[in-house]
Design goal:
CATH architecture of the domain at 24-121: Sandwich
Radius of gyration: 21 Å
Strand order of the largest sheet: 2-7-6-4
Structural class: alpha/beta
Shape: elongated
Number of strands: 7
Bound molecules: 2-acetamido-2-deoxy-beta-D-glucopyranose, copper (II) ion
Number of helices: 4
Helix content: 25-40%
Distance between the termini: 8 Å
Keywords: Copper, Disulfide bond, Electron transport, Glycoprotein, Membrane, Metal-binding, Signal, Transmembrane, Transmembrane helix, Transport
Largest sheet: 4 strands, mixed
Membrane topology: Single-pass type I membrane protein
GO molecular function: electron transfer activity; metal ion binding
Pfam family, one: Cu_bind_like
InterPro entries: Cupredoxin (IPR008972), Phytocyanin-like (IPR039391), Phytocyanin_dom (IPR003245)
Protein backbone atom coordinates (compact mmCIF):
# COMPACT_ATOMS: atom_id res chain seq x y z
CA UNK A 1 0.00 0.00 0.00
CA UNK A 2 1.30 3.41 -0.96
CA UNK A 3 0.44 5.10 2.35
CA UNK A 4 2.23 2.35 4.29
CA UNK A 5 5.36 2.78 2.21
CA UNK A 6 5.16 6.53 2.71
CA UNK A 7 5.03 6.10 6.47
CA UNK A 8 8.06 3.82 6.46
CA UNK A 9 10.02 6.27 4.30
CA UNK A 10 8.99 9.10 6.63
CA UNK A 11 10.18 7.13 9.66
CA UNK A 12 13.50 6.46 7.95
CA UNK A 13 13.93 10.12 7.07
CA UNK A 14 13.20 11.09 10.68
CA UNK A 15 15.95 8.70 11.77
CA UNK A 16 18.59 9.71 9.25
CA UNK A 17 18.09 13.47 8.75
CA UNK A 18 19.17 14.61 12.26
CA UNK A 19 22.47 12.76 11.86
CA UNK A 20 23.22 14.67 8.66
CA UNK A 21 21.88 18.21 9.21
CA UNK A 22 23.40 20.57 11.76
CA UNK A 23 21.05 22.61 13.94
CA UNK A 24 21.26 26.38 14.35
CA UNK A 25 20.24 27.50 17.85
CA UNK A 26 19.14 31.12 18.31
CA UNK A 27 20.23 31.77 21.91
CA UNK A 28 17.23 33.16 23.82
CA UNK A 29 15.04 32.71 20.74
CA UNK A 30 13.15 35.98 20.06
CA UNK A 31 14.58 37.62 23.19
CA UNK A 32 18.12 37.22 21.92
CA UNK A 33 21.20 37.69 24.13
CA UNK A 34 20.18 40.05 26.93
CA UNK A 35 19.92 40.59 30.69
CA UNK A 36 17.19 39.16 32.88
CA UNK A 37 16.60 36.06 30.74
CA UNK A 38 16.92 32.50 32.05
CA UNK A 39 19.41 30.91 29.63
CA UNK A 40 19.61 27.71 31.65
CA UNK A 41 15.88 27.25 31.20
CA UNK A 42 16.34 27.98 27.48
CA UNK A 43 19.04 25.30 27.20
CA UNK A 44 17.10 22.67 29.16
CA UNK A 45 15.75 19.92 26.95
CA UNK A 46 17.85 20.95 23.94
CA UNK A 47 20.44 18.56 22.53
CA UNK A 48 23.60 20.26 21.31
CA UNK A 49 25.83 18.25 18.96
CA UNK A 50 29.25 18.90 17.46
CA UNK A 51 28.69 20.79 14.20
CA UNK A 52 25.64 22.69 15.49
CA UNK A 53 25.82 26.48 15.77
CA UNK A 54 24.82 29.03 18.41
CA UNK A 55 23.67 32.46 17.22
CA UNK A 56 23.85 35.35 19.70
CA UNK A 57 21.63 38.26 18.61
CA UNK A 58 21.89 41.65 20.38
CA UNK A 59 22.33 45.37 19.70
CA UNK A 60 25.98 46.17 18.89
CA UNK A 61 27.75 47.84 21.81
CA UNK A 62 25.10 46.88 24.36
CA UNK A 63 26.29 43.30 24.92
CA UNK A 64 29.07 40.97 23.80
CA UNK A 65 29.93 37.28 23.98
CA UNK A 66 32.91 35.77 25.80
CA UNK A 67 33.74 32.09 25.84
CA UNK A 68 35.08 31.31 29.31
CA UNK A 69 35.97 28.39 31.57
CA UNK A 70 33.81 27.09 34.41
CA UNK A 71 35.52 29.18 37.09
CA UNK A 72 35.15 32.41 35.12
CA UNK A 73 31.55 31.47 34.37
CA UNK A 74 30.74 31.06 38.07
CA UNK A 75 32.62 34.19 39.13
CA UNK A 76 31.67 36.29 36.08
CA UNK A 77 35.35 37.01 35.35
CA UNK A 78 35.50 38.91 32.05
CA UNK A 79 38.44 38.00 29.76
CA UNK A 80 40.66 40.92 28.76
CA UNK A 81 40.39 40.09 25.06
CA UNK A 82 38.68 37.82 22.59
CA UNK A 83 35.10 39.07 22.97
CA UNK A 84 32.72 38.65 20.05
CA UNK A 85 30.78 41.86 19.45
CA UNK A 86 29.21 41.80 15.98
CA UNK A 87 25.63 41.77 17.32
CA UNK A 88 25.03 38.53 15.45
CA UNK A 89 27.80 36.21 16.60
CA UNK A 90 27.73 32.69 15.22
CA UNK A 91 29.67 30.06 17.15
CA UNK A 92 30.14 26.59 15.71
CA UNK A 93 30.26 23.91 18.40
CA UNK A 94 33.47 22.23 17.29
CA UNK A 95 34.22 19.86 20.17
CA UNK A 96 32.17 17.88 22.68
CA UNK A 97 32.02 18.84 26.38
CA UNK A 98 30.80 21.70 28.53
CA UNK A 99 30.92 25.24 27.09
CA UNK A 100 30.43 28.49 28.97
CA UNK A 101 29.50 31.92 27.57
CA UNK A 102 29.05 35.22 29.43
CA UNK A 103 28.38 38.83 28.55
CA UNK A 104 31.31 41.12 29.36
CA UNK A 105 29.42 44.44 29.59
CA UNK A 106 28.89 46.11 32.97
CA UNK A 107 27.43 43.72 35.54
CA UNK A 108 25.32 41.90 32.96
CA UNK A 109 26.77 38.53 33.99
CA UNK A 110 26.80 39.05 37.77
CA UNK A 111 23.52 40.91 38.18
CA UNK A 112 21.71 40.31 34.90
CA UNK A 113 22.51 36.58 34.80
CA UNK A 114 23.53 36.96 31.15
CA UNK A 115 25.36 33.65 31.04
CA UNK A 116 24.86 30.38 29.24
CA UNK A 117 26.30 26.92 29.97
CA UNK A 118 25.70 24.00 27.63
CA UNK A 119 26.98 20.48 27.10
CA UNK A 120 27.92 19.53 23.55
CA UNK A 121 27.59 15.88 22.56
CA UNK A 122 29.49 13.92 19.94
CA UNK A 123 27.63 13.77 16.65
CA UNK A 124 27.56 10.93 14.16
CA UNK A 125 30.10 11.77 11.42
CA UNK A 126 28.42 13.79 8.68
CA UNK A 127 29.09 12.89 5.06
CA UNK A 128 31.89 15.04 3.65
CA UNK A 129 33.94 15.08 0.45
CA UNK A 130 36.43 12.58 1.84
CA UNK A 131 34.22 10.50 4.13
CA UNK A 132 31.77 7.71 3.37
CA UNK A 133 28.05 8.26 4.01
CA UNK A 134 26.79 6.92 7.36
CA UNK A 135 26.02 3.22 7.30
CA UNK A 136 22.38 2.21 7.46
CA UNK A 137 22.10 -0.40 10.17
CA UNK A 138 19.65 -2.07 12.51
CA UNK A 139 15.96 -1.60 12.00
CA UNK A 140 16.51 1.14 9.43
CA UNK A 141 18.04 -1.55 7.20
CA UNK A 142 15.10 -3.82 7.97
CA UNK A 143 12.66 -1.02 7.05
CA UNK A 144 14.55 -0.37 3.81
CA UNK A 145 14.40 -4.08 2.96
CA UNK A 146 10.66 -4.06 3.69
CA UNK A 147 10.12 -1.10 1.33
CA UNK A 148 12.13 -2.74 -1.46
CA UNK A 149 10.26 -6.03 -0.99
CA UNK A 150 6.87 -4.26 -1.21
CA UNK A 151 7.86 -2.61 -4.48
CA UNK A 152 9.05 -5.87 -5.92
CA UNK A 153 5.91 -7.78 -4.85
CA UNK A 154 3.22 -5.19 -5.72
C1 LIG B 1 39.90 30.18 33.73
O1 LIG B 1 40.02 31.41 33.09
C2 LIG B 1 40.65 32.40 33.89
C3 LIG B 1 40.51 33.74 33.18
O2 LIG B 1 40.63 33.64 31.79
C4 LIG B 1 42.11 31.97 34.13
O3 LIG B 1 42.78 32.95 34.88
C5 LIG B 1 42.09 30.65 34.88
O4 LIG B 1 43.40 30.18 35.02
C6 LIG B 1 41.26 29.61 34.13
N1 LIG B 1 41.08 28.47 34.98
C7 LIG B 1 41.28 27.22 34.55
C8 LIG B 1 40.98 26.15 35.55
O5 LIG B 1 41.66 26.96 33.42
CU1 LIG C 1 25.19 42.15 28.19
Amino acid sequence: MASGTGLILLAMAALLVPAILATEFIVGDGSGWTIGYDYQAWATGKNFYVGDTLVFNYAVGVHNVNKVNQTAFQDCTIPLSGALESGKDVITLATPGKKWYICGKGKHCEVGKQKLAITVMDAAPAPGPSSAPPAITGWAAAALAAVLLKHLVV
